[in-house]
Amino acid sequence: MSHPKGRARLARAARAGSLACALALPLSLSPGSSLLPVAAQEAASAVQDVTLTDVVLPLGGAEFRAPKVTVSGTRLSKDELAALLRPGAAETWPARLARLEAASITIPVLVSEHPGPGPLRQTVTYREVTARDVRAGRIAELTAAGAAVSVSGGPEKGSGTYGQIRANDVDLVALTRLYGVPGDGKGTVQRVYAGIQVADVVYTDPSGTTMRIAELQGRDLGGRQIPGGFGGALDALAVGLSRLEAEAEALPPAERAKLAGAGADLMEAVSVGALEARGLSLSETGPQGALLIEAERLAYATGPEAGLSLDGLAFTQGPTRARLGRLALSGISLAPTLATLRRLADPAAAADADDARRMMPALGTLTLKALSLDLPGSETPPAADPLAAPAPKPGARSDAKPDGKAEIRPDGKAAPQAAPRPVPPQPVASQPVTHVALRDAALSFGPLKDGVPTAGRLSLSGLVMPASTVTGAPVIGALPGYGYRDLDLDLVADLAWDEGRREVALREVALSGREMGAVRLTGTLGGIGPEIFSSGMPASDLLMFTASAKTLDLTVENTGLFERFIATQSKALSLKPEELRQEYVSASQFGVPIILGGSAGARAIGTAMGQFVQKPGRLVLKARARDAAGLGFADFALARSPAAILDRVEVEAKAE
What we know:
Elements: H1 2-22, H2 38-46, E1 48-59, E2 62-74, H3 78-84, H4 93-97, E3 102-115, E4 121-135, E5 138-144, E6 146-152, E7 158-162, E8 165-171, H5 172-180, E9 190-204, E10 210-223, H6 229-247, H7 253-269, E11 270-286, E12 289-301, E13 307-317, E14 320-330, H8 335-344, H9 355-358, E15 365-376, E16 433-445, E17 448-449, E18 452-453, E19 455-466, E20 486-498, E21 503-513, E22 517-526, H10 531-534, H11 539-546, E23 548-558, H12 561-573, H13 577-595, H14 600-614, E24 618-625, E25 631-632, H15 633-638, H16 642-646, E26 649-655
Helix pairs in contact: 1-5, 1-6, 5-6, 6-7, 7-8, 12-13, 13-14
């Protein structure tokens, strides 16, 4: 619901602006004594309370209505206030609001209506609005007892409520200037709210999906003046996005340019010190059962501690449950997004399918902590009770014998039969649950190239799962057969792309497991240029023809897996573990060189493998392509034998 939510945020801001627009108040003076100068006594005596009725204020595309407004501590008369608030006056709203001063302003009911796009209409009704200490268009404290929201007239219908609303140091002059006075987008930031708090936000759409926020806070909210004002940019965004969604196709260049320009203007202009929401939840009922998503805290901040964080996330739907202790994203930059939008804001610019990818913001580091998943497994039907009597057939007589015949007494009547053994209730099988946990995870990103990071590092620590979940997977699918019930894994993948050298450095790719061992790979891949991001050919197909391996270093370390492998295989082959080990030593030292072609490199590999099998610790293999361009991926695929590959590389192998 992009438009209604955007309008809701705008309505909250515009509400404060319209509030001051409706309340032109001079400064109230403290009561004086008989010793005050005559002019001061006359000024103090001019302070009065004024009540206005049926106040209507248009502000941009919105209209604000207040059946009753009470202005206390003002030196303006009722007629002067009415003239000041009259729609269509030649003087701008910022100029008029700058003269407003009052001790307080109260509005029992304030209604804002914002139409569009199309038949859509949003109505917000605020209760018991009070502005205190209004000086030169600035409100020291602005409160509302609550509000009701209604969205109608379109597919995005819904309703909601706000609890108490409180804001401090609200600059109504800046608000109306940003909303309705055009600028070039390069001026200074004008702060509208020093702080704002909203309690108990609830919104429900027609499908029954309900969103709740226990508390919402913002600090240092404002922006810069932009062409068309915030009101015009928001309207352009709403119309453009609505049409784009309805037509499900690209907009004409002129409309696309207007939409992109409005989005870039707003993105550059909005200034946020910090936002924080606590006690969030989203609930709905769907085909998969009731869904509940909850979060303890969601926060966004700018400056030295800029970033986004989410704490205490929980997901529940039927037997599926998930819990995340913390998610944090730092180093966010919208520069790539803005650059793409600015280019598309030119109607003459050509749009292509890669623009959506180029609009991705630059990200620094994403971290996760304490992830827990409970996933449903396959259901197993309950075993039948072998002692249970078969269930009686429909319509069978209760006095029938097991063979279906009743016993006849001498008098010719059927003898009463013992009641058949009751069928005990069959146990209901509980659906098995697979538990997966992750202690820590971090994903860092390098600079972007056409929306794709040119470097990245992924690390997973403490990935715990049942060994049965990997059954059937290549290599690790055999782990359950070696006696592993649960897997505790760590993973690292660190890669970087050098566009100038057309190379990808595998700085580290490693997988390790508790009581298993570790595999670590480093190396350099060549023949990878910028066409990998822009070619119409699938990346995997393109790499097959262009990419090559220049260097590859493999390290295998054993911390328990090899011993389990030997124990399992020796039982299956009815051999003693040491006998089987010696067979593998012989196969490694003599069989591997033969399979690999008998070269010096093949013999080095066989010798090192034999030493590793004899005393499994660490095995190190290093390969360097003899050709500076590397050994092409296609060469691997088309090679007739391993010897054809080894002839083109230099190999080092050793066991430690």
